[in-house]
Amino acid sequence: MQIAAGEYGYTPADFHLLLAAGAVDTLQADATRCGGVTGFVNAAEQCTAWGVPLSAHCAPALHATLASAVEPSVHVEYFHDHVLIESLLFDGVPELVDGCLLPDPSRAGHGLSLSGRGNEYCTRSTS
């Protein structure tokens, strides 16, 4: 059984400790926690240095593009509830095709933009 951990890593040192201890078979990083794109790329570079694969934690719409950009990436965690929320909030959410998330290379950056959908779930008092 492969052991994956690191999804609650916030700093490069958090990932280093897991890798140096040999505590994980796969490092899991979450760009929404570890310093965005820079932190995710740092985790990937550490994985490359230690010869350990990288798995992206949750937020599949964001991580599909990031994971595609780094060599040690092997997984993007995919939860139906995250995909539902992402599709309400963003345009450019990658489609799942034969078990693969395929980012749209014609979209800039991470490929996402705010959609405006989902506003019906937000209420604001105007009194």
TrEMBL record:
The keyword Manganese does not apply. One of its GO terms (molecular function) is mandelate racemase activity. InterPro entries: Enolase-like_C_sf (IPR036849), Enolase_C-like (IPR029065), RHMD-like (IPR046945). Pfam families: MR_MLE_C. It comes from the Bacteria. One of its GO terms (biological process) is carbohydrate catabolic process. Residues 1-115 form the Enolase C-terminal domain. Its EC number is 5.1.2.2. The keyword Magnesium applies. It is an enzyme of class 5 (isomerase). Its cofactor is Mg(2+). This is Mandelate racemase. It comes from Microbacterium esteraromaticum.
